[in-house]
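Much of the work behind modern protein science is quiet bookkeeping, done one molecule at a time. The protein below has been through that process, and both of its lines are reproduced in full.


***
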Amino acid sequence: MDREYIKWYSPALQRDMELLVFGRGGASIVFFPPRMGRFYDYENWGVIESLRTKIEKGYIQVFCVDSVDCQSFYNYWLHPEQKIQCEIRYERYVINEVIPFVRAKNPGAFMVAAGCSLGAYHAMNMGLRNAGVFNKVVGMSGRYDITVQIGHYDDLLSGYWDEDVYFNMPPQYITNLTDPAILDRLRQLEIVLAIGQDDILLDSNRMFNYKLAEKGAQSYMHVWDREAHRARYWRQMVNNYL
């Protein structure tokens, strides 16, 4: 299986960013790591190995990007306004730096945003906000509004809310979306939600899926046995949905 390590200085984030590329062609998968994860986690956890056949046959090419979660949402010393600004800069890094790199590697490929846990949030938020860039979004064991406390999941912005927060929480901005041009792009996007039946995030996933369906989106929700919020389940999910 072809594997390439890449590193460059990101103007958007003003720091070095790393990623791994697996494969040479096929659909381009921009794969966001789980909560506070790193670009090498999916490789270390065997998630990439479970995709070996698809990668080696040229069906998919996987780009495992790094996260900035520890410097943004999980930096408890940072003011919430600064946290959401960091997320906005992270999106600029992905859209203005990673995507051109992906297209140069694999011109004209079908583009997928995917992630597990908080990586599902990043994939979903960037996929919906950039529906003209991505063709498909896959969220596995995802939490899509980090301002809502659910069980042991805290409100990561501590009650802070502004317009930037609103436009980066998919269940919030999807609810009031009425622009015909944006809705048209959204309806061309394939959206997959995969969640365990015992996952505390199940109900919020169902509500989010319902909101997407209300807007006419091609949204498909798959409920797995047990909690399914672990790498051993993600190794199975990726083969089903990527």
About this structure: DSSP finds nine helices and eight strands in the chain. Residues 3-241 form a domain with the Rossmann fold fold (CATH 3.40.50.1820). The chain has one domain: 3-241.
